[in-house]
Amino acid sequence: MKWEIIAIGKPSFSWAREAADDYLKRLRRMISLKISALRPNPVSNMSERMLEASAGSWRIALDERGLMMRSEDFANWIRKQELTGRKRVSILIGGANGHGDAVRSAVDEIWSLSPMTLQHELAQVVFLEQLYRACTILRGEPYHRK
């Protein structure tokens, strides 16, 4: 299964870039993963561009009002998607203004990383860490501890 993170803007904080790069390096030995950064524009245009970029994939928007999962549940979700033959998953991370209504109504799922609003660069790092954690759970590696 191929993963793509589609985010508004590139991380501007050095710590966010370094953390994202570290998890990308770790994940690339396990899965196919690409990060696409869209240049910030008005929200309506950004929604359209995110939907165009994720066309043909299973779309998941990250939003504080979405479904929350435990790490083990996320790993099981991945396992089920692989068993059903899902080819591509796109994770949509909005910018400072979040997602527009067009994105919320077009996605297949909405997930939350926290009930609190996370700054979009932090959301990307947290998602990458959780994806790495889920992959290590599936591989039986010792990264995840209960």
Describe this structure in words.
- By secondary structure, the chain is an alpha/beta fold.
- It has a single domain, classed as Alpha/beta knot.
- It has 5 helices and 5 strands; from the N terminus they run βαβαβαβαβα.
- It has helices spanning 14-27, 43-53, 71-83, 101-106, 120-139, and strands at residues 2-8, 32-38, 58-67, 88-93, 109-111.
- A 5-stranded parallel beta sheet has the order 2-1-4-3-5.
- Strand 3, helix 3 (71-83) and strand 4 (88-93) form a beta-alpha-beta unit.
- It is globular and about 45 Å long.
- The relative contact order is 0.24.
- The model has no long low-confidence stretch (mean pLDDT 93).
